[in-house]
Fold:
Amino acid sequence: MTDLALPLVAVLSLHAGAAEMGMLGASETAAFIAVGLLAGVIVDRSSRRLVLVLTALGSAIVVGSVPVAALAGGLTMAQLYVVSFAAGCLMVIEGVAFQAILMPLLGRERLIEGNAALRASDSVTAMVGPSLAGFLVQLLTAPIAIVVDALSFVLCGLLTLVVRVEESVPARASLTRVGQEIVEGLRYVLGEPSLRGLAAGGAAHNFFSNGAIVALYVLYANQLLGLPPVALGIVFAFGGPGALFGAIVAGRYGRRFGMRDTLVHTQLLTGVARAFVPLAALLPYPAIALALGELVLGAARSIANVNQLSMRMSLTPDHLQGRMNASVRFLMWSVVPFGALAGGFAAQRFGLVPTLVVAAAGTTLASLPYLLIPPTERAA
Structure:
């Protein structure tokens, strides 16, 4: 919900422009630079379940500050930048803990099936969340709609408390040892050819797709294409059915084509999906073009993510799971703030459509770094 509601707060309530939307997108993903590597050490030195509970409750507090400030009449873009950054930091730590807890929950022999099942459940929230967000923004205004999202984080934390998993938590390390452990995680990822190629391809994809395009998407769709919040929510929801289909076929696809070819194929398909974004400005029914793009994007990213996550988990010993995931995510996502800023300022200088065309082309070319993955590497 926040992925749609927070940008709509900036566009509809604070009248943000392209450069400000780029800065907002960069604020959230700058968290990968700030805590991306440290998150791995935190997760490997803590109860992963406890980390998940605390980050969920922290996210509820951070996100909940937006409607409080709006009701008090004091909401500003500066606060949105801070909220976005703080929520991003919690999201980074939560993401590493979530991925690290899967190994003891699933076991190596069930990684593909388990990740596919999780991706299938994600597809349901991908349909419900944006649709509900768009409806609530239209009905209640964007800041008030975020109240529901804050409550969902509280529910998330409470549900995580009922999870039962056997964890072995090492003794706490000194600050000197923490630095050594960060380096150990990075060295492991950069020294493993498959993980190194995966990180390179993911970074290229994220710069253009999750950086430039995501930062400009809501502004472009609402201001240039004229889509109201409800229509935007429906467009985003189309990613859900695509993701569900991708989750169903992900295991078979990865075993059939191998990891390298699977990632190349899905990245090319992602480029096609992103091309629908600037194309929508040329068509009489832009919402249909955007919805088709989200449908294809959901399928492509679901197949890619199930397979790449299963592969990297299967290649890594349990005591390195947190640091490996943190290192891969750091290498992949630390470029996103620069992509968001570049997209925002380019759109302000050259226009939204030309910038989105270049970003879609860059997303397609991001398939090339995946060729660094050894061709024999198969999904787990």
Notes: The chain is about 80% helix and 0% strand. The first helix runs from residue 2 to 13. The chain has a mean pLDDT of 89. The two ends are 32 Å apart (CA to CA).
